[in-house]
Amino acid sequence: MFSTVLVANRGEIAVRVIRTLRQLGIRSVAVFSDADADARHVREADTAVRIGPAAAAESYLSVERLLAAARRTGAEAVHPGYGFLAENAAFAAACADAGLAFIGPPAPAISLMGDKIRAKETVKAAGVPVVPGSSGSGLSDAELVAASREIGMPVLLKPSAGGGGKGMRLVREEAVLAEEIAAARREARSSFGDDTLLVERWIDRPRHIEIQVLADSHGNVVHLGERECSLQRRHQKVIEEAPSVLLTPELRASMGAAAVEAARSCGYVGAGTVEFIVPGGDPSSYYFMEMNTRLQVEHPVTELVTGLDLVEQQLRVAAGAELGFGQGDVVLTGHAIEARVCAEDPARGFLPSGGTVLALSEPSGGAVRTDSGLLAGVPVGSAYDPMLSKVIAYGPDRATALRVLRGALADTVILGVQTNTGFLRRLLAHPDVVSGDLDTGLVERDLPSLLPEGVPPEVYAAAALLSRPPVAAAGGGWSDPFDAPTGWRLGGTPAWTVHHFRLPGQDPVEVRSRPQGSDTELLLPTADDDAAAAGSGRNPAPTASEARGPGRSLAAPARARIVSRTADTLTLELDGFTHRFSHAASPEGTWLGRDGDSWHVQDHDPVAAALDGRGQGGAGTLAAPMPGTVTVVKVAVGDEVVAGQSLLVVEAMKMEHVISAPHAGTVTELDVTPGTTVAMDQVLAVVTPDEEEGR
Description:
The protein is an alpha+beta fold. It has 18 helices and 38 strands.
C-alpha cells in the first residue's frame, strides 16, 4: 500500500478521499488555489501545497503544477477525485511517466470511454445495446444538423468528451438547432477543452440507471448493483438512490452483466460507472449511454448498501492487489438515498449563488452521513462547481431512507449562501418520488410545485418573531425571565408559545414557536396537514416531532434562522429558502407593529427571480442573474434587436446563462465585454423599446 497520496481535487470529494486515507494510515497531500487557501480539505490533509491562482486552468487543471506538488511532497500516487482531471487520459499518462500511480483506470481506457462516439462503437461490438444516434467523430455543424434530421426530433446534443450533463442540450425544434449547437460547443470547450459533439435520439420520460463496476489488474470484474439517478435538473443529478425500485433481480443481473462486458471491452481497471438510459414503459429495453471512468459523486449510496469503501477499493487495486471477492459475494442490504446540496437558487432557475458561510450545521451519525467541503467563515465563489455537500440517508427500506433524508435536510444549516435544501425537501415529498414513479423530466415538469407559491405565512411569522427586540429590564436592571414571552422555563426544554398572526387581507394563522439555541423552531398547521392527520387518525395539533407546512410531512419541524439584520433589512432562512424583508415605516415608526396578539407585516422584498434579465433600472435593463464572467457579447450599442434575441452569455460554476432581449428595441447601453467579471444584479446592457411597442 502507498505511504503518501496526493489528492488532485478540492471540496467535498477531497475531504472524503482524505478521510479514507487517514483511516488506512496513509499520509494525505492536499492542493489548493488562492481561492481555497482556507478550505476544509486544506485543513484536514496532513500537508497542503499551493498550486496557483483561482482560475482552474492555472491551478487544478495544471498537470505540471500537480506533478510538481507530488514531487515536492514525496507522493507515490495521485487520486484525481471527480471533475477537473479525473477523466483526462493525458494526466493519467503523465502520472505514469513521472513514476506515480494513478488511482484510476489506465490512460487507454480513459481515452476510449472518454470519447462517447468510440465508446458506443466499442461496447456495441461487445454486444451491449446503445442509444440510436450519430456515427463518426469530429462532425461539423452541418453534419450534426443532418444527423438530427435523420434521427428525428427531438434530439439530445452531447459533448463527446464530457460528463455531468454539462454542455448537453435537448432540442425539440429544428429551427433552433444551429444556435443550440453553438452553445453546446462553447460550454463543452469551456468545461472539457474539447467541443466535439454527437447527437442521440431523445427518449421521452426515460429513467437514468447506472451500474457501479470494480475491476482489478488481474482480470477480475464485478458489479455492485445499480443506482437510480433519474431526478435531475438541466441534465444534472440532484437525488440518487440504491437500489432502484424499477429493477427486478433478473433485470439487475442482465444490466450488471452488460456493465461488466462494457468494462472488459476497454481493459478497465479500478472503480467506474456504466450508465444506461431506460424507457420507463419498457425497462428491459435499456441502452448504454456512457461510461464514467472515475468515482461518481453518488458513490456513497452504493457504499451504504454494500458495506464497501470504494475509495479503499480504488487504492488497493491501484497498488496491484486483487479484489478479494467475487460477484456472488456482493449483497445489497437496505436502501440509501443521497441529496446534492448546491449553491444555487431554485427560484432563479437554479442559477449559481455565492457568499460567505456565516453559520454551518450539518447532520451526521446514525443513519445519516454528510460528505462536505464546507467550513463556517469560508467564502463560496463562482470559480468552481456549485455542489457544496451531499447528505446521505440509510434505512432498512426506501420509505425509511426517504423519511430520514428529509429530516436530515431540515437539520442542514448553511447561512449566508442560498442553497437548494428547501427545494430538495419538497422534491423528496413529491408523490411520484415517494411512490418511485420517476423519470428524468419530473423536476422540470413539476418545478412550480417544488417552489413556494409566493411567501408562506410562516415566513412573515418568523420575521415578526425574530425581529422582536429583547425584553428590556425596567430601569436597566434585572429582568425576570418568566416575564419574557419566550417559552423559557427553569431546568427544562422551552415550552411552545402560541402566536396569532394576521396578514393584510388574510385570515389569522396560528404559529407555535420555541427557542432552539440561537434559532427559533416554528410549527405551522395547514389545511393539507389537518386533512392528512384526519385521514390517518393522527391528532392534527402541532407537536415537536411532527412537521408542518408544504413539503415538510414526515420530517423535522422547520427552523427559522437570522442570516443578517440591519436597521433597514432582515434576511432570514426558513425551511431551506432565504427571504429578505425591507424597512417600511408605519405610523408608529416601526416596520413591524404589534396589535394585541397579532402582528401586521408592513412590507416584504423577496429574494426573487430575475430570469428575464430585468434589473432595477427598468423593463429594458438587463442585469446579471448570477455572479460570473461574461463569455459572449453578440451585440453592440445601436443594434436593433427582436424580443427573445440572445444578446450576452454569462458563465459561472461551469454553467452558461443566456441573456435575451425582453422586447424589440435598440441597444442603447452596453457595459461589458467578453471576459468581464460581474456581480449578481449588475447592469449589463439596456434595450430601449421600439416606439411602436411603447404605444
